[in-house]
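subagent[fold] <- orchestrator: predict structure for attached chain, return tokens only, no commentary.
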Amino acid sequence: MSNIAAVARDLIANFTFASVIDILIVSTSIYWVLLLMRGTTAMTVLRGVVVVLGGAFLLSRVLDLRVVNWLLRNSVTGLVIALAVVFQPEIRRALERLGRTGFRAQTHHEEQARAIETVVHAASRLARQGRGALIIFERETGLREVIDTGVPLDAALSLELLASVFATNTPLHDGAVIIRVDRVVAAGCTLPFSEVALPAEFGMRHRAALGITERTDAVAVVVSEERGELGLASSGRMLSGLTEERLERQLYRLFALEPDTGDDTLRAIEGA
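subagent[fold] -> orchestrator:
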């Protein structure tokens, strides 16, 4: 007990204001990383890593496994590199969030509102006609790599343009349309697919919508060709079976164009 008391006195004596700042920075960083991984496959991988390393550490201590102890002590650098590789999407998402300024959203409210109304009306019309569509709103994270996979348009957004692009059997109808504020930047774009397991009724458009929102802060509107349903993806989460009014309301909320409506489902899609 005397040794424990001595250690405690030393810790208290050396505990300064800088120590508080140090603890806050580390704990906040860990909490932020966990929020980024919540609801993703990375969280499952992290649990597996914790179970394996924790079990190995306990066994090595209890049974005095010297080789295992030596491996654990000398593999820290390799583990850090391996974790950086495994959690690359989450690390990239965190750095992108740090780099977002929000300037574009603050200076284009009217144009963004008109674009949302046009997209919602076009998506609703396409759904009634049984035509599929995938419409991506670019936000702070640039989508140049995705835009380069499609056909450049740089055209004013309109109902007629979206109807033409997603007309059945046209060259561009299977790809995604990229919208920057109130202009169609490109059409027929190829998006990265999500690796998350989806319900059987979700097709390739839904997987592509989730894929782009997992990697960037883009917002995706999906029209199901088979079921004629409206869907919305953001932050790697998907809502389906939306009405025209609910889709518009949630898009307004995601772009900070409408006050809080108290919609808990919307908070879920916005993510951490």
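orchestrator: received. Logging for downstream: Residues 2 and 205 are 66 Å apart (CA to CA). The chain is about 55% helix and 15% strand.
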